[in-house]
Design a protein that fits this description.
The complex is a heterodimer of chains A (188) and B (251).
Chain A (H helix, E strand, L loop, with lengths): L4 H9 L3 H23 L2 H18 L9 H30 L25 H12 L2 H11 L5 H8 L3 H23 L1
Helix pairs in contact in A: 1-2, 2-3, 2-4, 3-4, 4-6, 4-7, 5-8, 6-7, 6-8, 7-8
Chain B lengths: L6 H8 L6 H10 L1 H18 L10 H10 L11 H25 L9 H34 L6 E2 L1 H23 L3 H18 L4 E2 L1 H13 L2 H17 L11
Antiparallel strand pairs in B: 1-2
Helix pairs in contact in B: 1-3, 2-3, 5-6, 5-7, 6-7, 6-10, 7-8
Classes of the chains: A mainly alpha (188), B mainly alpha (251).
Chain lengths: 188, 251
């Protein structure tokens, strides 16, 4: 019989490694999907998956069952994805300013275009979508992803983003508006 | 309801966030303009669902557990000899990362630190990093060569998968260090390498001819083996050279 999340958490808190293993095996794919949608990058998503479970393990004693375990876990994943997006942006800024020194042998070897990373968007609409998602602010992207793909409530999303209900709604409205601008001509 | 429904209300309605949904449904049913607007919104949001995410094999959860469990304090661990070896390598990589970052960002005051000492510590630090990355690339080459040169049509890649999974950990540490320090060429090669290692480690143990061909294509299309060989060779040369007067050099 499959252990419930609560039973697995109880086992994990009692120091039985199998309890946490059940949770990791059960939710890895879900966390990975969320991370992909948040970061738009498959490889960052692997970082997110690993770090999410490490953080969840550290914070497990603070988990309260008023929200489901998956919501609690996805909140950790969303927060870490946000951290990653911000640090990536900082790195890109710094990287732009530091790569001008010197020419390297590798510069003469062709490297795949960044677009090739996004192997899951091949059709026109998928490209447009990726581009439109990239145009969203971190807050808009997070709010939209959690609402649209994960089905979190406005209140839960507000908790993740540490903003109020109105601000959360406005983030979702702005995100949807931007997506409509980009995609509506194709879907009409 | 006589006025048209604002877009915000339609969005909340789509997500089931409105308590007065039946009234809105009635209005949409009777108002062509709002119905058109709502259908347009639905088409856009439904199209968002069509964006797939990269797939992961059925045993992905177990793979994640094998990576995560080794990092949990007090977790029950079942180590095999080979994984101990690779964890040691990852730990070594971590040490190198720390040494490298510490050296890179430590303030060097010309008033208090003799130039020779600073140069010496930089040489030691760079030397450790060079050796570690060189060894990492050599290990990676073994995996890549095994797959790229295989003449089989389908094969059991369990050893390569296991090795690739272990190398991903160390690779990530090196890549993050390189990214943090602006080493663009190292980031590029490790980025390319990580993608392929990840793909190998996420493959099933027994792969079909088509899957093997796809892996080979990934390795060949990116010229990865060639790049890894070039960088490995450059690093070998540098490691075997006598210490040169140090300036800031790139790998």
């Amino acid at each position: 019989m499959e252990e419930s999340d609560e039973a697995a958490i109880t086992l994990a808190l009692a120091g039985d490694g199998d309890g946490f293993r059940i949770l990791v095996e059960r939710y890895s794919r879900g966390v990975f999907r969320l991370a992909c949608r948040m970061t738009g990058n498959e490889f960052d998503s692997e970082d997110v998956v690993q770090e999410t479970f490490l953080r969840a393990h550290r914070q497990l004693t603070s988990y309260e069952s008023r929200s489901s375990f998956s919501t609690w876990l996805y909140r950790i994943a969303a927060n870490y994805s946000l951290d990653l997006l911000r640090s990536r942006r900082r790195h890109e800024d710094r990287h732009t300013s530091t790569t001008v020194e010197g020419v390297d042998v590798l510069d003469n070897i062709s490297t795949p275009a960044p677009g090739q990373d996004r192997m899951y968007f091949s059709a026109q609409i998928k490209e447009k979508l990726e581009s439109a998602l990239g145009e969203l602010s971190d807050q808009e992207r997070t709010a939209f992803t959690l609402r649209h793909f994960e089905g979190m409530s406005i209140e839960e999303i507000g908790e993740v983003l540490t903003i109020g209900t109105s601000a959360t709604k406005n983030s979702i409205f702005r995100a949807v508006r931007k997506l409509r601008d980009a995609l509506q001509p194709l879907t009409a | 309801m006589t006025e048209h429904i604002p877009e915000e209300q339609l969005i909340l309605h789509y997500y089931g966030e409105l308590p007065e949904s039946p009234a809105i449904d009635d209005h949409i049913g009777s108002c062509p303009q709002c119905r058109g607007e709502y259908h347009a919104l639905q088409r856009v949001l439904n199209s968002v669902d069509s964006a797939p995410v990269p797939s992961r094999s059925a045993d992905y959860g177990q793979q994640v557990w094998s990576r995560v469990s080794s990092k949990l304090p007090g977790a029950r661990r079942k180590w095999f000899a080979f994984s101990q070896r690779w964890v040691a390598i990852a730990a070594m990589a971590g040490l190198v990362v720390c040494a490298f970052l510490a050296g890179r960002y430590s303030p060097h005051s010309s008033d208090t630190a003799p130039v020779a000492t600073a140069a010496g510590s930089t040489q030691v630090r760079d030397g450790i990093l060079l050796v570690s990355v060189r060894d990492h690339l050599e290990r990676s080459q073994v995996v890549l060569r095994e797959l790229a040169n295989s003449s089989e049509t389908a094969m059991d890649i369990t050893p390569e998968r296991t090795m690739a999974g272990s190398l991903v950990e160390a690779n990530r540490l090196y890549r993050q260090t390189a990214a943090a320090t602006g080493e663009a060429s190292v980031v590029n090669i490790l980025d390319d390498l990580e993608r392929v290692l990840l793909e190998i480690s996420n493959s099933p143990d027994n792969i079909s001819a088509a899957q093997l061909a796809e892996l080979r294509n990934r390795i060949e299309a990116q010229g990865l083996l060639f790049k890894v060989q070039i960088i490995g060779s450059k690093l070998r040369d540098r490691v075997s050279m006598p210490p040169a007067p140090l300036t800031k050099t790139k790998l």
